[in-house]
Amino acid sequence: MAEKRASAPRQSETPVRETAVDLTGPVEDYLKAIYDIERDQQAAATNEIAQRLQIAPASVSGMVRRLAEQGLLEYERYKGVKLTAAGRRAALRTIRRHRVIEAYLVQALGYSWDVVHEEAERLEHAASDDLIDRMATAIGEPSTDPHGAPIPTRDGRVDERRHRRLSELRPGQRALVTRVGDEDPELLRYLASLGLLPNATVTLDERAPFEGPLTIRVEQARYQVGTALAERVLVELLPD
Question: What is the pTM of this model?
Answer without folding.
Answer: 0.86
